[in-house]
Amino acid sequence: MREPDRTLGGFEPEAGLSPRQVHAVQKLPVPSLLRSLLSEHLDPGYAAAAKARADSPHPPPRMVRWGWQATAALLIAMVFAVAAAQARTTAPGVSEAQHVLAGSVRAAEGTTDGLADRRDTLAAEVDDIARRQLADDAEGQQLLTSLDEVNLPAASTPMIGPGVTVTVTDPGMGRDLTDVSKQRVPGSRQVILDRDLQLVVNSLWAAGAEAIAIDGIRMGPNVTIRQAGGAILVDNHPTASPYVIVALGPPNALRDGFDRSPGLIRLRLLEASYGVGATVSADEGLTVPTGATREIKFAKQMGP
Question: Cα dihedral angle (15, 20, 26, 28), rounded to 10 degrees?
Fold first, then answer.
């Protein structure tokens, strides 16, 4: 029996035929793709390349191959060295620019705080003069009473009295927060978001609060709580954990109403899931500052 044809994947085309059928029938041997895949596990091109490399009369010396590898490694090292040198060269300029920007921000914050204090002082002087002028007759006293009624919702006067203090604290570097699945903000350990503080403030209003301040910023008309990246802005002022929310009102009724509110339910859920700190305490003699007053603009119809 002759050697099986390798191009047919080891299959003998005359297998199973009688001698007469073998000589009578002429077949064109066509290799079977399926048989080739089952029997030939190495592509013929690899075998041909290996044979050509072995039959080559002048194979590359080992020292030459090592030389090319060393040259490639040296080029890569040079690229990294140049990149490191460039980074060291530009680092002082970047650091200096950061210091300049930080100084500018601090100076702007100081100027803003000074102007805000001056605004509050002048507003208090104007209010005092107006009260002295209006307190002389009955019509002026009636007007002062009306002004006091609208000043409370407008947050235009400082207030002092009993109430509750809600302190919300972001969790620390806890082990649970190393897992990204425990992060509400991807890539950040921040858990408390603007919508959480919004819900707490609205729950305090619904519980009967008469005045509210977050970290010393009075909540009033046109005052917003917004998320800006990893910071929370209250009336465009950045605030950070812990968030201290002061609400003036009857302490017992205010606390009872807040205990049943969606705001405290959300805080307890965050406390159980992420380790957020949330405390509620009733106090006497709490103060809230004056809120920023803004001009209210009304739309007017144009034409007839």
Answer: 0
Question: Are β-strands 277-288 and 243-248 bridged in parallel, bridged antiparallel, or unpaired?
Answer: unpaired
- Going from N- to C-terminal start, the domains of the chain cover 6-55, 60-152, 159-288
* Phi/psi-derived region of residue 208, left when phi > 0, alpha when psi is between -120 and 50, beta in every other case: left
Edge to edge, the sheet with strand 243-248 lists: 217-218, 211-214, 243-248, 159-169, 277-288
3-state helix, strand, coil in the chain (%, to 5): 55, 15, 30
Summarised one tens digit per residue, pLDDT across range 145-185 is 777 777 777 777 888 999 999 999 988 644 444 444 455 55
Gap between the Cα atoms of 153 and 291, Å rounded: 10
For residues 213 and 289, the answer to whether their CB atoms sit within 8 Å is yes
Which pTM does this prediction carry?
A: 0.57
Q: State the architecture of 159-288 in CATH terms.
A: 2-Layer Sandwich (3.30)
pLDDT digits (tens, 9 = 90+) for 76-108: 999 988 888 887 887 777 777 778 888 887 888
Residue 191 in contact with residue 232, Cβ under 8 Å?
A: no
